[in-house]
Amino acid sequence: MAFRTIKGKHLLLRIMIGESDKLKGELLYMVILKKARELGLAGCTISRGMAGFGAASVIHSEYPPEFTHDLPIIIETVDTPAHTEKFLKAVQPLLKGALVTEEEVRVRHYHHGLRAPK
Q1: Is the pLDDT of residue 74 over 70?
Q2: Residues 81 and 102 sit within 8 Å (Cβ to Cβ)
């Protein structure tokens, strides 16, 4: 496995979907995570939101318990514009009920912390 390093100006891509979103029985956020890895992105992080609402204005929350079926999922990547565009083109057809944002960020430090294999 090749280790990548990035530094300087890059793009932060943020995708917000629902926890219960699936593709052919697999959780959509895992499909997207695997695609990010397959395409060689520098990294991908998935976070579960505590509460939120989207375009339909339906509140999803951990409390009361009847709202817990579809909490917000936030998928974030930081990479070069070329890698980000390639990734977005690959996952765009999967994003039916999603919000996608992009912003320029400056990477100050990004290292894997592992020794490269000999």
Answers
A1: yes
A2: no
